[in-house]
Specification:
Distance between the termini: 40 Å
Number of strands: 11
Helix content: under 10%
Order of helices and strands: EEEEEEEEEEE
Strand content: over 45%
Radius of gyration: 14 Å
Length: about 120
């Protein structure tokens, strides 16, 4: 069974920074992608950033230049460093793990962590 454990959300003032962490455990194929999505009230869940086990991160336009996604493959952990936060970044952030296999793709989600940016 795969589990994703998130940490690092909270309340921050505009212009501040937060760092989110997500550790995956369980039966995880080496061929996978990990990253973060977010969902603001009344909006659909959207990609923030994601990285494959052997590739470079891909970022949403809203995250480029402000957020940095890094990955520790040995620990199956990803980190999202968020700088220059603004109120539009307020959302529940969900860790995502996609495992690729001959059967297709399996999606796993963390429980979500709240990020609130005050103006």
């Amino acid at each position: 069974q795969v589990q994703l454990v998130e940490s690092g959300g909270g309340l921050v003032q505009a212009g501040g920074s937060l760092r989110l962490s997500c550790a995956a455990s369980g039966s995880i194929s080496n061929i996978n992608a990990m990253g973060w999505y977010r969902q603001a009230p009344g909006k659909q869940r959207e990609l923030v950033a994601i990285v494959t086990s052997g590739g470079s991160p891909n970022y949403a336009d809203s995250a480029k230049g402000r957020f940095t996604l890094s990955r520790d493959n040995a620990k199956n952990t990803v980190y999202l460093q968020m700088n220059s936060l603004n109120p539009e970044d307020t959302a529940v952030y969900f860790c995502s793990l996609k495992v690729f296999g001959v059967w297709g793709t399996r999606d796993y989600w963390g429980q979500g962590t709240q990020v609130t940016v005050s103006s």
